[in-house]
Design a protein that fits this description.
Helices cover 40% and strands 26% of the residues. It is α/β, with parallel strands linked by helices.
Length: 297
């Protein structure tokens, strides 16, 4: 029996968290997968899985073997992709992590457009606002809206990004014009608890210095879309991603303020692990998003 087949069976079982689930996923019998894993353990002379009728877990050796074997198989698959790169027919699965805000907003259509353009690619989109560990959690690409920081990952900028401070016309009539960020400490604000700075909003002075203003209000929510609706209802000033604000800008329900003080050092990035052989499907995915955002400018 091919050792790679046994390794793939072991990885399938681990990632599906059980033999039955793996059998359903890959279309093989539970007994056959169990046979492959048992043969792999016999070859290694080590127990990789603790399995009973009710529980399933990796042994310490299993954890070590899984991490290394997963990397080896990815390199083998990526090398095969590289050889096939001349073909226009991209195939396989791309596992993507994207913030819920990105996936739910109009810019999320970039992901759907890619899937439509490549019918033989399975695009698995996991909307999650946390920073996932791409390597440990098995992601091919992550979309991140952030200030880029040094890491062992590869980043490609897809588009510029900024936050927009805004409020409803009615709110600005009640509280008067807001000309400087320091005024926000004295008016209601809508706090997006998903934001990196929570209620400490960062601003840049024209001279290049940065500072934060502590804000508060009656509404705290972990969604920019809900923050936008609260601001439209006159409940406070909101900090919105520019692509969320633009969806309402033509309707006049929100007015941008403090534009000259907003930071401009953020971007929308495609992040992926450093690999010797980057899969053609991942390269095509990132290239597609880059061109998609350029076309929107």
């Amino acid at each position: 029996m091919d050792t790679l087949t046994r390794i793939r069976a072991f990885i399938d079982v681990v990632e599906a968290e059980g033999f039955s689930a793996a059998a359903r996923k890959v279309g093989r019998s539970k007994a056959l997968l169990s046979k492959y894993v048992r043969e792999l353990e016999d070859d290694l002379g080590a127990l990789l899985l603790n399995r009973t009728t009710r529980q399933f877990s990796l042994t310490e050796a299993g954890h070590t073997y899984y991490r290394t074997a997963s990397d080896i198989l990815k390199e083998i698959d990526n090398l095969a992709d590289l050889v096939r790169e001349g073909s226009k027919d991209l195939k396989g699965r791309i596992r993507v992590s994207a913030p819920r805000t990105f996936a739910d907003a109009a810019v999320g259509k970039s992901l759907i457009d890619f899937a439509s353009a490549h019918p033989e690619v399975t695009l698995e989109i996991i909307s999650d606002d946390r920073f996932v560990d791409l390597v440990e959690e098995g992601y091919d690409v992550a979309i991140r809206i952030t200030r880029l920081e040094d890491s062992g990952l590869i980043a490609r900028k897809l588009a510029a990004f900024s936050l927009i401070a805004c409020a409803s016309p009615d709110f600005l009539e009640r509280y008067g014009p807001i000309k400087h960020p320091s005024q926000l400490a004295d008016v209601p604000c809508v706090v997006d608890t998903n934001g990196r700075f929570l209620n400490n909003w960062r601003f840049d002075d024209p001279d290049g210095s940065s500072y934060t203003v502590s804000v508060s209000g009656r509404v705290e929510v972990n969604s920019p879309l809900a923050s936008m609706r609260a601001a439209e209802a006159g409940l406070g000033v909101a900090f919105l991603p520019d692509f969320v604000y633009r969806e309402r800008s033509s309707e006049g329900t929100l007015v941008p303020i403090l534009e000259e003080f907003m930071p401009t050092d953020r971007g929308i990035y495609a992040i992926y692990p450093h690999r010797r052989y980057l899969p053609a499907k991942v390269r095509a995915f990132v290239d597609y998003l880059t061109h998609w955002f350029k076309a929107q400018q």
